[in-house]
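Researcher: Quick one. two chains, 235 residues in total.
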Amino acid sequence: QSALTQPASVSGSPGQSITISCTGTSSDVGAYDYVSWYQQHPGKAPKLMIYDVSSRPSGVPDRFSGSKSGNTASLTISGLQAEDEADYYCTSYTTSSTLVFGGGTRLTVL
Amino acid sequence: EVQLVESGGGLVKPGGSLRLSCAASGFTFSSYTMIWVRQAPGKGLEWVSSISGSGAFIYYADSVKGRFIISRDNAKNSLYLQMNSLRAEDMAIYYCARDLVFGRIRGVPHSTDYWGQGTLVTVSS
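Model:
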């Protein structure tokens, strides 16, 4: 199972919006609405930000939103804040009953 | 408060074995599927294995199948990962994490809501 494809890095200024893409195949992202997004700050454990494509866990700001079209999922962060600077990983359930992660995207807040 | 605390990491030679533990507290451990995820130094996340609340349903990534064994002791609120025939590419921080969904009977969790702080496994001669 190949990793999902994410851009290595994205950047934006405070207050702006950014979108991180996550491209898979019809065997993972395109097969189910089971895409999640995790935020990871350096030296910390990942934190769930979005699950089931577009649902937010309690406590996650509504600045974070998710969507999916075909084999590509996206995470959008609006009103960018300094504390959003982190690594972001997408993950998807697969038709092989496994989980596959993306390679990760480093978000830099300029 | 939900807490997951991993332990058991350390330095091991290629071909060696190591057993990781994850102590859970603050929730009904037996009602949740648990997973192990690893992260090689400076690299991304990789799902390793999952085990249902009862322990009846177990899944492994191809990269560890036949070498790693996941298990749990619900009486002790503990999750384990027995790692055998370790390779250099197994070197990583190993995290345990809890299924977002309460009471999943079978299958791999689509999302996990609580993670431990991780334990580092170093494979080197």
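The interface with chain A takes residues 35, 37, 44-47, 50, 59, 61-62, 95, 100, 107-113, 115-118 of chain B (CB under 8 Å).
Researcher: Thanks, that's what I needed.
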